[in-house]
Amino acid sequence: MGRNREQPLARDAMAYVLAGGRGSRLKELTDRRAKPAVYFGGKSRIIDFALSNALNSGIRRIGVATQYKAHSLIRHLQQGWNFLHPERNESFDILPASQRVSEHQWYEGTADAVFQNIDIIEDYHPEFMVILAGDHVYKMDYELMLRQHVDQNADVTVGCLEVPRMEAVGFGVMHVDGEDRISAFVEKPADPPAMPDKPDMALASMGIYVFRTKFLFEQLRRDAATHGSSRDFGKDIIPYIVQHGKAVAHRFSTSCVKSRFEDKAYWRDVGTIDAYWEANIDLTDVVPELDLYDREWPIWTYAEVRPPAKFVHDEDGRRGSAISSLVSGDCIVSGASLRSSLLFTGVRVNSFSSLEEAVVMPDCIVGRNVKLKKVVLDRGVEVPEGLVVGFDPEVDARRFRRSEGGVCLITQEMIDRLPYS
């Protein structure tokens, strides 16, 4: 096309984030919010990772399709992502299902969530579309994926993870040739196809796709006119292109962003209570696998104006302390001890209490003489004085949501049902 190879392709791309996910495996954490809006890492929401990747990659046109219980997500996007300005050729659109195309209230599938907004996208004239899932935690430079798409003249480029072959049974798996051209796409196979160069590994779809915009719109319109289609990228659009066009796999290992403290490519689907708890607690390690302190690839979010964290009291048995823990602004640890825990903004932990491996969401209040181990506290929970959780599995399971991995999820409704509350 005569394009200057030094010119970033991201400049001519639009990132489109699919953020309507229900996230039912997160149980009560998604009773009031969509999965992409769930808190993560002390300050962020899960969706901030996909959005930050787009921004850090040089993409300045972003759309977010919302659907399920979207108020918390929309409020976060309006507060934290309103710094993109049209006068600088930037844009940020929040796109709820609005019955603009059909009489159906909801987007019927991931592809339909783009199809219904074709006219809005066309107004910006992007040459490329980068379709993203809004519910994964990772750092990735999409410019490198765009470059591969152009260099290989692909119809679609699919972001893929290299995973142990028998762990890929829960993914959409790519069967590729020696040049990573996709010859088959298999959804959740019992016997996943191996990578040609790594027979013990498989290529699993990340739900990230790159298209030229014109080609994508042709496929979306064709799919919308196809009777019986589920209007989904993974089920309909990608398999059709694999069969009738050129689909290429892009290996995450080639575009993942790593600081000097990160040894390997980091990607997590924090879609279960256990996975969510573990990914947050992993951040308390001395050298965590995910480096949130990397200033060259910041995770942007809504930065609340709050006072600093504070630790008070210095007596035996009543000492405000935190070991291997992350403590956000406006937290007060008053004569309590934290170990391997993560506190979001505005948490209060009162005297003689101890928290170990606890993920505590914003504005929680932990009363005196409380002992919590291996727990997740939903936003705004007030833990009554003397409550003990994490030491008796049978008692915990009767009172709270206890996961297969032994993590207790605690909500205010559960607290209110306790006999002494």
Automatic annotation (TrEMBL):
It catalyses: alpha-D-glucose 1-phosphate + ATP + H(+) = ADP-alpha-D-glucose + diphosphate. Residues 307-410 form the Glucose-1-phosphate adenylyltransferase/Bifunctional protein GlmU-like C-terminal hexapeptide domain. Its EC number is 2.7.7.27. It holds the Pfam family Hexapep_GlmU. The record marks Q67, W106 as: Could play a key role in the communication between the regulatory and the substrate sites. PROSITE patterns: ADP_GLC_PYROPHOSPH_1, ADP_GLC_PYROPHOSPH_2, ADP_GLC_PYROPHOSPH_3. One of its GO terms (biological process) is glycogen biosynthetic process. Belongs to the bacterial/plant glucose-1-phosphate adenylyltransferase family. HAMAP family: GlgC. This is Glucose-1-phosphate adenylyltransferase. It comes from Tianweitania populi. The gene is glgC.
